[in-house]
Amino acid sequence: MDTLTALLTRTSQGALIEPAPSVDALNIAFQTALRAPDHRLLRPWRYLVIEGEARARLAECFLQAALQDNPNLSDVEQQRLLKMPLRAPMLIVAITATKEDPKVPLVEQTLSTGAAIQNLLLALHVQGFGSMWRTGWVVEHSLIKQALAVQPQENIAGFIYVGTPATPAKTPNLLNVSDFVNNWQG
């Protein structure tokens, strides 16, 4: 698949099944992530790969965090939380690991992480895998951050669900460029 086709056809896919990427395929995807724009080469990102039984342990962290916030959580909601990390055979936790630098503001480092994640998603897509970048309250909760050893200067940029698409990807609708792009004349 050529680069433009990959860019124009990548979509988020929520229904993901085995197999997950092999070690080699995953390493290629991470190599592309590590090529993201990175002012002063601060490398303001790191990743955790969660597979197998570790997904169930993450689910338990999600449940405990939710119960900490709401001890009266319904059984249905508890079961939903326990199933969340099992929606895909692999999860990648993308972490923004900011560094103090007088020339590189924290927002630029956060954007670098986003660019790295986009490279990762595209590389997975090109290799035939599907993915879904998820955020929400789970990326902010202190109990989940503690369980994942996220440091005080770090933030979870998202949980990337990865696997083989269970169904063919829908053809994305191309947006009208003129709705988003204008020429500035000064």
Characteristic terms for this protein:
186 residues; alpha+beta; NADH Oxidase; five-stranded antiparallel sheet; 6 helices; globular
List the helices and strands and how they pair.
Layout: H1 3-9, E1 16-17, H2 23-33, E2 45-51, H3 54-69, H4 75-83, E3 90-97, H5 106-126, E4 130-134, H6 142-147, E5 154-165
Antiparallel strand pairs: 1-5, 2-3, 3-5, 4-5
Helix pairs in contact: 2-5, 3-4
> What are the secondary-structure elements, in order, as H or E?
HEHEHHEHEHE
Question: Biggest β-sheet: count, sense, barrel?
Answer: 5 strands, antiparallel
Structural class: alpha+beta
Which band does the percent of strand residues land in? 15-25%
Helix content: 25-40%
Tell me the number of structural domains.
1
Assign an overall shape: globular
> How many strand units?
5
Number of helices: 6
Radius of gyration (Å): 18 Å
Separation of termini? 40 Å
Mean pLDDT: 97
CATH class category name: Alpha Beta
Examine the secondary-structure arrangement and name the CATH architecture: 3-Layer(aba) Sandwich
Task: Say what the CATH topology is.
Answer: NADH Oxidase
Q: Which runs of at least 5 residues are low in confidence (pLDDT < 50)?
A: none
Task: Describe what you observe in this structure.
This protein has 186 residues and is α+β, with helices and mostly antiparallel strands. The chain has a single domain (13-167), classed as NADH Oxidase, CATH 3.40.109. Helices cover 38% and strands 18% of the residues. Strands 1, 2, 3, 4 and 5 form a 5-stranded antiparallel beta sheet that branches. The radius of gyration is 18 Å and the shape is globular. The mean pLDDT is 97.
